[in-house]
Backbone:
């Protein structure tokens, strides 16, 4: 067992973990943050995407001990003061989710994508979604949601 | 999926990492872990210890000078892809990094890991071979030619750590790959380069390991144009056949990718 201390969604967390504990299991089973999903468990599907130090990673392919000292953000950490994050809002309004299983990973990937590339066209969004699979194949509205979110966030940045 | 037990270490220096590696013969180095962790989850690997070198400052740098782009072993694919300096000096290399895996994988996976693992379908070995790169380790320096020795094998000794890869700048270069749509690994990837070492064509994904295509190199040395290699038939006898494609299909892909790479390089 190894002692780890990290920040998860702004809260300091300390725990003893087995070295082999994957970050996704730590988040779901230790911290009960079950918004991060396990889909394929082989780093293909992206349902487990979270941010570590501001960058999207697949939490099924990172050990919790690697995140010692890091800042982790999960889907539960996006909304502020009861208000959805603009990407969440855009997914809701554009019918960007069907069964919802892939949605947390899609949204975490989208937030990371918009951070790196504030101006996005549909082709770029599709290329950036390479590592996220929607089992409902509902990509059309996922792409629309991200396109809409990027525009809203750019407009908001301009206004601010 | 849960791997076997192991002990995790995060050394503070390369020297500490070497000492740890020396003291535990069944240890493995961990950098991005995007191959190793998946392999451990499948219980195909069972290291006693993982030595995490991802955070070492000594391995995290990109240097560009008049002759070469030099990249520390722990630099991630995303960092290479997004580096304005690499984009300017050796755009084909930045583009190659951008084509690896997906954004989340690129945030973790490292150039040193890719080179040391030498997956027969990995991208960086093609760049290293075509650009006549120098691979530096804790013990010595290799020419790419002498480093990659076959499927998943390299000339590295036990306990030897790749520290940096130095890619000479060239006049023209491009990388084109036909990706397996599920794994994003190369079904066939071709890196072409034209510089002071002549024209070099390296192929990944199609055979048991990265290799140079001598016939194409000779033809392109005379005329650096896709038409120069249009009639070259790639020998399928030593290429891979699997559920994703036959050796003959891959041989044809190598031709198509090579022509596209040359076309991109002269654009």
Residues:
């Amino acid at each position: 067992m190894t002692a780890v201390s990290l920040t998860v969604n702004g809260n300091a967390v300390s725990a003893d973990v087995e070295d082999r504990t994957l970050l996704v299991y730590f988040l779901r089973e230790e911290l009960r943050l079950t918004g991060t999903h396990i889909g394929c468990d082989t780093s293909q599907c992206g349902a487990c995407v979270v941010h570590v130090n501001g960058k999207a990673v697949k939490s099924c392919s990172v050990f919790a001990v690697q995140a010692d000292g890091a800042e982790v953000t999960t889907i539960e950490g996006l909304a502020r003061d009861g208000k959805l994050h603009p990407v969440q809002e855009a997914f809701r309004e554009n019918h960007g989710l069907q069964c919802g299983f892939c949605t947390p990973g899609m949204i975490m990937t989208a937030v990371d994508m918009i951070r790196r590339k504030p101006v996005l066209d549909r082709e770029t969004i599709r290329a950036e979604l390479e590592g996220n699979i929607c089992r409902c194949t509902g990509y059309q509205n996922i792409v629309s949601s991200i396109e809409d979110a990027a525009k809203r966030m750019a407009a908001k940045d301009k206004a601010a | 999926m849960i791997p076997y037990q192991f002990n995790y270490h995060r050394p503070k220096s390369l020297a500490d990492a070497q000492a740890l590696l020396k003291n535990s013969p069944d240890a493995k180095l961990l950098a991005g872990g995007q191959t190793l962790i998946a392999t451990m989850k499948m219980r195909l690997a069972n290291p006693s210890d993982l030595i995490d070198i991802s955070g070492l400052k000594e391995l995290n740098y990109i240097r560009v000078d008049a002759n070469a782009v030099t990249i520390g072993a722990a630099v991630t694919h995303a960092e290479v892809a997004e580096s304005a300096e690499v984009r300017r000096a050796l755009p084909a290399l930045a583009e190659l990094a951008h084509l690896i895996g997906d954004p989340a994988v690129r945030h973790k996976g490292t150039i040193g890991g890719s080179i040391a693992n030498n997956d027969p379908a990995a991208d960086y070995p093609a760049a290293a071979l075509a650009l006549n790169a120098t691979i530096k380790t804790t013990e010595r320096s290799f020419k790419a030619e002498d480093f990659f020795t076959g499927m998943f094998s390299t000339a590295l000794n036990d306990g030897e750590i790749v520290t940096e890869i130095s890619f000479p700048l060239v006049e023209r270069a491009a990388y084109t790959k036909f990706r397996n749509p599920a794994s994003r690994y190369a079904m066939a990837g071709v890196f072409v380069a034209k510089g002071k070492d002549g024209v070099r064509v390296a192929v990944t994904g199609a055979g048991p390991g990265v290799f140079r295509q001598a016939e194409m190199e000779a033809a392109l040395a005379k005329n650096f144009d896709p038409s120069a290699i249009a009639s070259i038939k790639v020998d399928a006898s030593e290429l891979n056949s699997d559920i994703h494609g036959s050796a003959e299909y891959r041989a044809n892909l190598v031709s198509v990718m090579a022509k596209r790479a040359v076309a991109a390089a002269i654009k």
In short: Chain B touches chain A through 31 residues (CB under 8 Å). DSSP finds eleven helices and 14 strands in chain B.
